[in-house]
Amino acid sequence: MTAPVSHADPFGHDNLEDPGPLHESLRAAGPVVRLSRYDTYALARYEHVHAALTDWQRFQSAAGVGLSNFRHEKPWRPPSLLLEADPPRHDAPRRVLSAIIGPRALHRLRERWAADAADLVDRVLDDDGGVVDAVPALAEAFPLRVFPDAVGIPADGRENLLPYGDHLFNAFGPPNDLVAAGAGRIAGLSAWVDARCAREVLTADGFGAAIWAAADRGDLTPDQAPLVVRSLLSAGVDTTVHGLSAVLYALATNPRQWERLCAQPSLARVAFDEAVRWESPVQTFFRTATTDVTVGETVIPDGAKILMFLGAANRDPRRWDDPDRFDLGRDPSGHVGFGMGLHQCVGQHIARLEAESLLTALARRVSRIEPAGPVARHHNNTLRAWRSIPVRLHRK
Amino acid sequence: MAETRTLRVTGKEPVADDVVALTLADPGGARLPDWTPGAHIDVILPGGLTRQYSLCGDRWDAHSYRIAVLRERGGRGGSAYVHDVLAVGGVVGLGGPRNNFPLVPAGRYLFIAGGIGITPLLPMIAQAELLGADWQLLYGGRREASLAFGHDLLGYGDRVHLRPEDRHGLLDLPGFLARWRPGTRVYCCGPAPLLAAVERACAGLPPHTLRTERFVASAAAGLARGAPFEIELARSGTVLTVPAHSSVLDVVTAAGAGVLSSCRQGVCGTCEITVLAGEPEHRDSVLDDAERAAGTRMFACVSRARSDRLVVDL
Description:
Chain B: Keywords: 2Fe-2S, Flavoprotein, Iron, Iron-sulfur, Metal-binding, Oxidoreductase. Chain B: One of its GO terms (molecular function) is 2 iron, 2 sulfur cluster binding. The complex is a heterodimer. Helix content of chain A is about 45%, strand content about 15%. Chain A is an alpha+beta fold. Chain A has a six-stranded mixed sheet with strand order 1-2-3-9-6-4, sandwiched between helices. Chain A has a three-stranded antiparallel sheet with strand order 5-13-10. A two-stranded antiparallel sheet of chain A has the order 7-8. Chain B folds into three domains: about 5-100, Translation factors (Elongation Factor Tu (Ef-tu), domain 3, Beta Barrel); about 110-215, Nucleotide-binding domain of ferredoxin-NADP reductase (FNR) module (Rossmann fold); about 230-310, Beta-grasp domain (Ubiquitin-like (UB roll), Roll). Chain B has a six-stranded antiparallel sheet, with helices on one face. In chain B, strands 9-8-7-10-11 form a five-stranded parallel sheet, with helices on both faces. Chains A and B meet through helix 4 and helix 13 of A and loops of B.
């Protein structure tokens, strides 16, 4: 059967500003929709996105998780050993990184990050009287404070991480104006990031040094180690920034949910995952069919690119009751905001710990997060992001 | 997928003297958890005997596992049950997969197998071949008829050296290891005396060259529990019963304890809970042996209890 066709541009500014109507139309059209503009297929229902994410055998990543098909096109940078790899080459980098930043390894960071979050919130309340733009003051400030330290890169130049990540996530889309806008700086930013992956610049106690130690044990090859460090610096900053922005925006605009969190701070983890479901900071990733794959009644041909709409799946009413509502009473478990299957976000536990630290510190000191001006989106081909969320934090 | 994970036997065939191969699948036909070469699963037999078997099939087949089971003389009945009682259509419990014996990236491998220790090496060999690595296999056993999968391996040609003891005597380890060159990794699985001999033979090689897994028939301590158990939520004092066919995750979530989860296969690590008292029975793919023994954390989606009650920090 021929799949329904959409002529929409998922990477156009109207859809990046508000992807909701596009998502709804794609879900309604069928399990698979052909995107005429990019000669690809789209999956937008939870069931099919989940199935494609877990089926690495038929939906491969090594041909690129952006629009570019590495079977025919040269990648703009050396491919990631994690994101843009399939088994068996994916195995060793994934195993090493999972152990280094898995839930077990993060217990030792819990107290330090809680103290860092408390300190940051205190400073925001004292210095700015609590009237701040939550994006730079909290959502960017906290990850940029704790994460590069945890990786072990030097202090200078960390401001490069955000534009690097922004371009990287734009580059998964088509070569549109967003990619063109970042192209001028990217060579310099890439060189800066690559230089931070070398053994000699990393502190002895961080994730980066642990990756190099794995290479010393032979669990990775020496030429893999810097690329695995690069994955941390690529995927670990913008994503958490926008995840934190998402939960802060959600709590500012849903005061009943904020009250609920204050009354029961142990809901911080649920609040963050619910925000990741509701907002889906990573909106989309591509896969490539390794064979003719039948989804619904449509045959997706071998070699075709498939765009998975994580954000649409996370608001699919077939899976979620009242999906557009941000609700701490919901169990958001099973959302695909971190992906699913063997490529599922290896840093998800870091993201959760950052969010739990920051939300717990806020809930302890702040009685109300009041919107204090017009908000503004930041457009990115892959990420659902905020540029500005002005708020007034009311001190308890 | 069933909430307590089970596998159905969909195939059973002899592959050598005293060795049967089983093909296992999800009873509902679902995908099975992903695995990597060197991984093993816990097979939980009726009555709670738990045995560990290396996965020796094809990871590109997401819907079945393959294991091979040697009949253990003088064992405690696990392998005898598999050989004599367990039939196609029968059901066993599943723990894992876990991998304590991963294949690390290298351009060259030397594989040494003793008897049923060939099983974890089979998918490693397939993978080395797929990656175009240079590899050789030395495979020993008592007799030619006891070398499981020996005939299949001959398809790899002169990379494979089958050395049944009744014709060749003990394995010529120094001769085989003379092929070692810088960058070669040596993988060995088999009985303890073989591992000890290989360790001695590799003593002069650089650290981390040799990776071994001891083939052990000895079970995890104690029996897996079939009966329901209680779980006490320490913060509220609530005591819940976990029936044999429900997961801890479902029981505590139904009680409103708000435990996040994601993969529900014991892989992603999201549903970690802290154990304050009682003895967990770990069936996840995350914790290593020391962490399992510590017994202070568990993953609620798949792991259960050995003791009558678990007290958890919820």
